Amino acid sequence: MALSREQIAMRVAQEFQDGDYINLGIGIPTLAANYVPADIEVMLQSENGLLGMGPNPTEDELDADMINAGKETVTAITGASIFNSAESFAMIRGGHVDFTVLGAFEVDVFGNIASWMIPNKLIKGMGGAMDLVAGAKNIIVTMTHADKKGNSKLLPKCTLPLTGVNCITRIITDLAVLEVKNQAFYLKERAPGVSVEEIREKTAGELVVEGEIPEMSFA
Predict the structure, then answer these.
(1) DSSP H helical segments within the chain, as ranges?
(2) Is 137 within a domain?
(3) CATH number for position 154
(4) What pLDDT digit, counting tens, does each position of 143-160 carry?
(5) Alpha carbon of 129 to those of 84, 100, 155, 182, 188: distances in Å?
(6) Are 98 and 21 in contact (CB under 8 A)?
(7) Of 17, 121, 152, 219, which has the highest C-beta tally within 10 A?
């Protein structure tokens, strides 16, 4: 069974390392703030000028002026800092963000990502994604494996305008965890109840399957 948005975010949060400075993109990535493992400390950064985001607010914690780059209300942890977006982008462009999680429309076997524009459709724009794919040390893409029409988003070559080139090495979808290397997608984990055959059918780019593929764990 395909993972929910929340389950994808839970799996993404397992990638975080103690002490990481992390930027979370709009959409599924922002949900990962709710699932940071209890035994580590990370600092979540938003390009609109906040370092130290916490989980989504409860009704009692809601502050309409405290928002992330996607204009969603957030909380701030003890020790958080607020500053202007120029300083925030200086952090990103200077290589001070350890980890970023981005959504995408397409990713291909070369590690290219298309995430900002679909021809003839109204999209809000690139935001900080182009800076993040160039400045972050570790980049993970999270998205559904296929679009609403069932077309694969994991392609031999991206068809949409690119956000970044040869920059993606790991993808977490609603069906699988994959690594991008040697111009192929290497299957590492599968969602509970999802078969390798289903993942293969929904992956347009070359898929490499080595040995038994474990199911994702959310423990």
Answers:
(1) 5-13, 28-31, 85-93, 129-135, 196-201
(2) yes
(3) 3.40.1080.10
(4) 999 999 999 999 999 999
(5) 18, 9, 20, 24, 26
(6) yes
(7) 152
Look at the chain and report how many structural domains it folds into.
1
Interacting residues of 65 by C-beta distance below 8 A, sequence separation 6+: none
Give the domain range for residue 64: 5-208
Q: Examine the residue annotation and report whether 198 is marked as an active-site residue of this protein.
A: no
pLDDT in tens, 47-105: 889 999 988 899 999 999 898 887 889 999 999 999 999 999 999 999 999 999 999 99
- The residue annotated as part of the active site, out of 47, 198, 201, 206, is 47
Its pTM stands at: 0.91
Tell me which amino acid residue 89 is: F
In 3D space, the residue among 155, 134, 144, 161 whose CA is nearest the CA of residue 205 turns out to be: 155
The tokens of 180 are what?
């991008």
Residue 125 confidence class, pLDDT cut points 50, 70, 90: low
216 domain residue, yes or no: no
Does residue 217 fall inside a structural domain? no
